[in-house]
Amino acid sequence: MVDAATIVDALEGAGYRLTAPRRALAGLIASRGGHFTAENLLGESRRRRLGVTRATVFRSLDVLADLGIVERLDLPSGEHAFVACEPVHHHHIVCSSCGRSTEVEDSGLEAVAARIARDTGYRIDTHRLELFGLCPTCRSAA
Amino acid sequence: MVDAATIVDALEGAGYRLTAPRRALAGLIASRGGHFTAENLLGESRRRRLGVTRATVFRSLDVLADLGIVERLDLPSGEHAFVACEPVHHHHIVCSSCGRSTEVEDSGLEAVAARIARDTGYRIDTHRLELFGLCPTCRSAA
DNA sequence: GAGTTATTGCGACTGAGTCTCGATAGCTGC
DNA sequence: GCAGCTATCGAGACTCAGTCGCAATAACTC
To answer: CB distance A134–B122 less than 8 Å?
Structure first.
């Protein structure tokens, strides 16, 4: 979905230094199909002996989230997770069985938000739509 | 929005014991206009010397969330919060200035979700829409 | 190649949420 | 009203995610 080079390029383009831990994390993130937690990355980095520490994982995820390369996600379990994605406004649908996630454009939702704004009198600044269910693969497996 | 008696009745109806801490929390929750965190309730309970401890606050919120009297909410800051609400499917719009929250029915969103399901092939089990912005009062104050 | 400084690792720390366990107090049945 | 059963509570230790401060390191720049 997003490859390591894209992540590295984005970091470089934004003026961040290309360090070994950042390259390593870019690789880990790219190798993940779906969502992942900070703990996942940390565990994986330990397993592969990449020598990336806890603080660095969190700091890097912060940077990547700022750049929009990665997006924060709240799982129904209450965990905080991330997904790699293109930096345009969109939402995610997450498979509750395999964890895979797919980007969804929000056409249609804008209209719903606008109607809600009109009905309630609120000025809506941001919205977040998270969908959870079974992906096609897991559906046919079931 | 939701009064203490409603919360107490719901607990009783579901076969839970009506204890002093639960009554106290029902009162605190009812007195809150918008969303609140477990920490808010804990602080308020200490201030009013209600003698409700941390573990009890969390346990009670779990119960109330199971009953659908209270709903979990993830604030953009990453904090976990709750809102008291009617136990029917709906969403919340939260004022980022005063914290007030309003329930929003999801007519229109169902159609969006159905379209997304069709486009992606996912079977959508749950969805969560969270809207953040300025409520009418805060808008006119600004 | 030297200098500047962003970034890292380390390790201590914080704060939310959980768990255990003995004590307490609601409810039920009499 | 009282006794007994047991759900619930309080206390406090514990866990785990995430943060912070600081000295050491290593990317870039010139």
So the answer is: yes
Bridge pairing between strands B91-95 and B123-134: parallel
Nearest neighbour of B124 by CB, restricted to A109, A128, A133: A133
Nucleotide D27's nearest residue (CA vs C1') is: A17
Position B20: which residue type?
Answer: A
Taking the model in full, what pTM does it have? 0.85
CA distance B71 to B94: 13
User: Inter-chain contact A136–B115, Cβ cutoff 8 Å?
Assistant: no
Mind giving me the DSSP string for A39-72?
HHHHHHHHHTT----HHHHHHHHHHHHHHTSEEE
Give the contacts of A34 (CB within 8 A, at least 6 positions apart).
A83, A94, A95, A98, A99, A100, A101
- Which amino acid, B103? E
- CA distance to partner chain B, nearest, from residue A54 (Å): 19
pLDDT band at residue A87 using 50, 70 and 90 as cut-offs: low
**Main-chain dihedrals φ then ψ at residue A58, nearest 5 degrees:** -65, -40
What is the residue-wise DSSP string for B42-91? HHHHHHTT----HHHHHHHHHHHHHHTSEEEEE-TTS-EEEEE--SSS-E
CA angle, B97 as apex, B96 and B99 as ends, to 5°?
A: 65
CA distance A135 to chain B (A): 4
How far, in Å, CA of B63 to CA of B73, rounded?
16
Cross-strand pairs, B73:
B81
Token output for B88: 């029917």
Per mean pLDDT, which range of A102-111, B35-44, B55-64, B113-122 is the poorest? A102-111
